[in-house]
Write a structure and sequence with these properties.
heterodimer, A: mainly beta, seven-stranded mixed sheet, four-stranded antiparallel sheet, globular, B: mainly beta, six-stranded mixed sheet, 12 strands, 0% helix
Chain lengths: 115, 113
């Protein structure tokens, strides 16, 4: 079985631009979460989506948005990029929302560099 | 609010020796605790989890973790370290029924031959 996939692998943008990151969860997984990992820190929660609805949002500005599609894949959008948005963006999927013992399965991440 | 703390930025151990990577937590309600490992330029890989039950949890690659409620700790352990265990280790706590994980700052494990 394929794991969580993310595209692109690397991305270089300039300040003020917009970026779209993509994620495909493990087959059968309906929940997708996005995390930002700045170099030297642990991942920070951005969003969680389940059945195409936002179920959780972290402490990130409105420049960050996301959506989930009928096939459960997801996009993370970031507008008006700042230098501080440079990070590894991780997508994670898990099966049913209500299971408290579910671990998350992470993709390899997208490395975003903002110049 | 949920949080975890990893007090050590780096742990150095010789191959064959036991290793411990420390984690303490602060939660309201029942703790759902996890350990993940991250290799360079890779995503996070699940190692083990504590939800309920036995305080000693066994996971992947020979790792185990000990849940201690009185000390609010969830330390990761391995009886005999391998050079290939060298990586970045993250402790995490899950918030309630949602897939919102709070991660620690990470501990870099260096295993020397």
């Amino acid at each position: 079985d394929a794991g969580v996939t993310q595209s692109p692998t690397h991305l270089i943008k300039t300040r003020g631009q917009h970026v779209t990151l993509r994620c495909s969860p493990i087959s059968g997984h309906k929940s997708v979460s996005w995390y930002q990992q700045v170099l030297g820190q642990g991942p920070q929660f951005i969003f969680q989506y389940y059945e195409k609805e936002e179920r959780g949002r972290g402490n990130f500005p409105d420049r960050f948005s996301a959506r989930q599609f009928p096939n459960y894949s997801s996009e993370l959008n970031v507008n008006a990029l700042l230098l501080g948005d440079s990070a590894l963006y991780l997508c994670a999927s898990s099966s049913p929302l209500s299971r408290t013992d579910n671990e998350q399965f992470f993709g390899p991440g997208t490395r975003l560099t903002v110049l | 609010a949920q949080s975890v703390a990893q007090p050590e930025d780096q742990v150095n151990v010789a191959e064959g020796n036991p290793l411990t990577v420390k984690c303490t937590y602060s939660v309201s309600g029942n703790p759902y605790l996890f350990w993940y490992v991250q290799y360079p330029n890779r995503g996070l890989q699940f190692l083990l989890k504590y939800i309920t039950g036995d305080n000693l949890v066994k996971g992947s690659y020979g790792f185990e973790a000990e849940f201690n409620k009185s000390q609010t700790s969830f330390h990761l352990k391995k009886p005999s370290a391998l050079v290939s265990d060298s990586a970045l280790y993250f402790c995490a706590v899950r918030e309630g029924n949602f897939n919102k994980f709070y991660f620690g700052s990470g501990t870099k494990l260096n295993v020397k031959p």
